[in-house]
Amino acid sequence: MKKAREKDLRFIEKYRDRLFTDKNHMLSILRGKLPVHKTTFNGEPLNEFDIRGLTFGQYISWVAQEKKFTLQALAIELGISRSLLEQIYDDSVTPWDLEKKLIINLGQILEISNEHMIQIIKGHRLTPWLLKERQPGGASAARTHHTLERKTREEELLQTNLLIQQNREEDKRAEFLSELFS
């Protein structure tokens, strides 16, 4: 863990002037306003391992940049709003929230094979903030032991609710994938 932290600190030190120079730096990159060398990361070519570590939105953004699509051009080509495409890029929506036709069109326009699209969707990470945001409102069926301190109970309830939501999302993903190219 300490080695990884030291490596990260060396990286940040080395590339400080290129990393997020202002609060809108990432948006500028995503909107195609800033040029980015697309086949490399830190001067090294992206390999299969790097690509597999990307979320669905990151991968779609990367492929679109590789194909020289701007955010607006891809949105027009897909027949969706730029706002929705931004939500896809920043993973505010999951692939299974989208219409199957949109995923198929996205694959065709960006020349992503069906098998590869399935791999990317299967590998899409469910982050805790996304799970927390997607939890239904109202009372939860999750319970904790009454002898625990209030704060501990709240944390346990949150963790339990996140696990429940993760299970729901994984079920939605499985159902979506089973119907996607059938």
Structure notes:
The chain has 182 residues and is mainly alpha-helical. It has ten helices and two strands. It has helices at residues 2-14, 25-30, 48-52, 56-66, 71-78, 82-89, 100-109, 114-122, 128-134, 150-180; strands at 40-41, 44-45. Helix 5 crosses helix 6 and helix 9 (128-134) packs across helix 10 (150-180).
Topology, element by element:
Elements: H1 2-14, H2 25-30, E1 40-41, E2 44-45, H3 48-52, H4 56-66, H5 71-78, H6 82-89, H7 100-109, H8 114-122, H9 128-134, H10 150-180
Antiparallel strand pairs: 1-2
Helix pairs in contact: 5-6, 9-10
- Taking the alpha carbons of the first and last residues, their distance comes to 44 Å
Globular, elongated, flat, extended or rod-shaped: what is the shape?
globular
Largest sheet: 2 strands, antiparallel
Overall residue-averaged pLDDT value: 75
**How many individual domains?**
2
CATH superfamily of the largest domain: lambda repressor-like DNA-binding domains
CATH architecture annotation name of the largest domain:
Orthogonal Bundle
Helix and strand run: HHEEHHHHHHHH
> What is the rounded Rg?
19 Å
Structural class computed from helices and strand pairing: mainly alpha
- Strand residue percentage: under 5%
Number of helices: 10
- Assigned CATH class of the largest domain: Mainly Alpha
Spans where pLDDT lies below 50 across 5 or more residues: 34-38
Helix content: 55-70%
Number of strands: 2
CATH-assigned fold name of the largest domain = 434 Repressor (Amino-terminal Domain)
Provide the spatial order of strands within the biggest beta sheet: 1-2
